[in-house]
User: Which sequence fits this backbone?
């Protein structure tokens, strides 16, 4: 009996030490960071709304996206989290998922109603994030699901400007195939084609020049504008 009592005491001490050395998460956001879905569900069951923010003002679903925690994102969305809830900079879960190039979470969020053209307070859309980083597969997926290929920054730069600067030919081709304008000038008067020529990227230059020469009716948009006949004033 004494031996059994000693064993039980030893086990109890070990369990207590484990809990002391590795305490459970103290909040839902911490549970997300630890990929501890059972604890996350416990917080949601007891006290934390799925649409809540952490102490820094980050929505829980955005934290899950930024951490690449697909399971936590599913749990939160199933419990009613708003996929479009933003932090004070206008960043939503979709912006964070795109930033880490996590297509499964991007797909989940868009399927659950995330706005694919939602811009941050600085005018940054998910597509602009993807083009700046040269995430070719993600760029194509966003374009296939409604992303605006010509939505600009406040300074007039389009996603095509960004893709050209990062030298990502597949991204450039994906944008051109979905209507991006190689002749769209930013506020400084610089077009994506100008950027490519400055960088000396022959592959991208060729793609942009070909797209610029061929509008929907086979004409360069600038040439087309110049050849529109002027109407005579009525007499």
Assistant:
């Amino acid at each position: 009996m004494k031996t059994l009592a000693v064993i039980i005491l030893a086990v109890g001490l070990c369990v207590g030490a484990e809990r002391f050395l590795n305490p459970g998460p103290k909040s839902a956001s911490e549970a997300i960071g630890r990929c501890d879905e059972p604890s996350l569900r416990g917080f949601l069951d007891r006290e934390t709304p799925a649409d809540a923010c952490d102490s820094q003002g980050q929505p829980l679903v955005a934290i899950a996206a930024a951490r690449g925690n697909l399971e936590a994102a599913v749990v939160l969305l199933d419990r009613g989290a708003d996929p479009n809830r933003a932090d004070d900079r206008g960043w939503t879960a979709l912006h964070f998922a795109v930033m880490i190039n996590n297509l499964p979470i991007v797909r989940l969020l868009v399927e659950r109603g995330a706005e694919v053209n939602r811009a941050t307070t600085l005018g940054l859309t998910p597509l602009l994030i993807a083009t700046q980083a040269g995430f070719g597969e993600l760029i194509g997926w966003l374009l296939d699901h409604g992303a605006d290929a010509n939505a600009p920054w406040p300074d007039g730069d389009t996603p095509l400007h960004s893709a050209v600067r990062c030298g990502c030919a597949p991204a450039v081709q994906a944008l051109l195939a979905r209507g991006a304008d190689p002749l769209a000038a930013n506020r400084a008067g610089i077009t994506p084609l100008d950027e490519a020529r400055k960088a000396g990227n022959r592959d991208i230059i060729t793609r942009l020049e070909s797209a610029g020469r061929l509008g929907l009716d086979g004409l360069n948009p600038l040439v087309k504008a110049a050849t529109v006949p002027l109407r005579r004033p009525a007499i």
Notes: Residues 225 and 231 are 14 Å apart (CA to CA). The first helix runs from residue 2 to 21.
